[in-house]
């Protein structure tokens, strides 16, 4: 009876009408779906245990793991299925799909291999287009979008890919329109919301970005990326204190997102809170010891305060961890130059000061008397007499 229920569930899952999957799902229904997923996983695990050489069971469990966002477990299962049946285009497609989510190399190769195994579907073409978009090969991406459109033009994933395509070309308005069409076709699709929020934010359309982010948070309260989006929006509008608090909430949810540490440090740096910025950058450096950027930013907190000896000591410690780092060595040399320049200025000022103090004061000498000669009256000033010019004979 248990297996009958399982296969009934799989049949319903495979044949579900995705055109209605966007409607709001009641909480009780969601809970029931989660229970069904757990029951199906349990049944599949038993089936694999009983027959470990059957690839289809690994594939079905991989699909289920993907659905509930257990992507790493999904990759393990689909890899086992592929080993048991390496010529299955369906298995290669599913593997590429999982690798795309995990940002793993080989996703595009597996998707193209799936096509070469005569596996053909609009979903595969859209996946290949999306992977070409990641590599910014827009021409190839467009070819596969056209293939998908020829098979099924009203696919929400196709409009999503088109939105990414136009966004990469800088056509924000067309990108937004395509993302909105994807959202209409699949109202419960997180990715459409995510791209709309990000494109509104990058275009400084803050009200729209916040509106869509709040709507998405209501639909997907477990999606931590939406918390990150909100922090970015607040940072862009200059609400730095609020942005810092939201980033810190996100870090409690995702402690391994070290890129967020950089953002928090940058906010403190903008506010000239150098001590707080240093602590954040230093934490980032300790978490990712091979990251040169973290050490450089931490050192800059000292340098901006002209505390060059502290910066020198910090960079020397960083070079102990990364002895081959040319950029850290160059920055250390720059700091040493600044220290020497400071010392030189100090020595010159000190020398001038002590020179002035040690020089004896000279007594004022009286101005030497000038010799004055009495030359007397050299000549008498003669009184001038009137000159008689004579009569003008030219006039009659």
Keywords:
396 residues; mainly alpha; 0% strand; Serine Threonine Protein Phosphatase 5, Tetratricopeptide repeat
Radius of gyration: 40 Å
Q: Average pLDDT value?
A: 85
Extended strand count: 0
Order of helices and strands: HHHHHHHHHHHHHHHHHHH
The oligomeric state of the chains shown is single chain
Strand content: under 5%
Q: What is the overall silhouette?
A: elongated
Give me the CATH architecture of one domain, please.
Alpha Horseshoe
In CATH, what is the homologous superfamily of one domain?
Answer: Tetratricopeptide repeat domain
Description of the molecule:
There is one protein chain. The chain has 396 residues and is an all-alpha fold. Among the domains are: 1-12 and 27-119, Tetratricopeptide repeat domain (Serine Threonine Protein Phosphatase 5, Tetratricopeptide repeat, Alpha Horseshoe); 188-255, Serine Threonine Protein Phosphatase 5, Tetratricopeptide repeat (Alpha Horseshoe); 283-346, no CATH class. Helix content is 71%, strand content 0%. Helix 9 (156-168) packs parallel to helix 11, helix 10 runs antiparallel to helix 11 and helix 15 (258-270) packs antiparallel against helix 16. The longest helix has 33 residues, at 326-358. It is elongated and about 85 Å long. The model is unreliable at 1-27 (pLDDT under 50).
């Amino acid at each position: 009876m248990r297996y009958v229920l399982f296969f009934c569930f799989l049949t319903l899952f495979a044949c579900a009408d995705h055109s209605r999957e966007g409607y709001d799902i009641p909480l009780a229904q969601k809970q029931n779906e989660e229970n069904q997923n757990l029951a199906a996983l349990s049944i599949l695990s038993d089936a694999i245990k009983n027959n470990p050489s059957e690839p289809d069971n690994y594939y079905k469990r991989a699909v289920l793991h993907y659905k509930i966002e257990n992507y790493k477990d999904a990759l393990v299962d689909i890899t086992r299925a592929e080993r048991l049946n390496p010529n299955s285009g369906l298995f290669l497609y599913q593997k590429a799909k999982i690798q795309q989510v995990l940002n793993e190399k080989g996703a595009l190769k597996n998707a193209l291999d799936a096509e070469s195994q005569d596996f053909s579907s609009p979903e595969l073409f859209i996946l290949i287009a999306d992977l070409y978009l990641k590599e910014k090969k827009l021409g190839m991406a467009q070819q596969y979008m056209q293939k998908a459109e020829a098979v099924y033009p009203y696919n929400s994933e196709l409009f999503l890919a088109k939105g990414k395509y136009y966004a990469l070309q800088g056509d924000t308005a067309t990108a937004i329109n395509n993302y909105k069409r994807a959202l209409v076709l699949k109202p419960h699709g997180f990715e459409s919301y995510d791209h709309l929020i990000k494109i509104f934010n990058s275009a400084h359309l803050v009200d729209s970005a916040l509106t869509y982010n709040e709507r998405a948070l209501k639909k997907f309260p477990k999606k931590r990326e939406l918390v990150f989006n909100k922090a970015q929006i607040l940072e862009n509008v200059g609400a730095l204190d609020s942005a810092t608090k939201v980033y810190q909430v996100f870090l409690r949810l995702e402690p391994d997102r070290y890129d967020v540490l950089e953002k928090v440090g940058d906010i403190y740096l903008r506010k000239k809170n150098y001590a707080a910025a240093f602590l954040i950058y230093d934490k980032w450096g300790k978490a990712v010891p091979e990251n040169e950027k973290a050490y450089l930013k931490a050192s800059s907190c000292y340098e901006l305060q002209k505390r060059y000896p502290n910066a020198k000591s910090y960079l020397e410690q960083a070079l102990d961890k990364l002895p081959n780092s040319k950029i850290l060595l160059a920055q250390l040399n720059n700091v040493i130059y600044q220290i020497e320049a400071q010392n030189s200025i100090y020595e010159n000022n000190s020398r001038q000061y002590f020179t002035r103090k040690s020089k004896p004061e000279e007594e004022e000498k009286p101005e030497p008397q000038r010799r004055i000669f009495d030359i007397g009256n050299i000549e008498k000033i003669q009184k001038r007499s009137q000159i008689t010019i004579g009569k003008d004979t030219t006039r009659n």
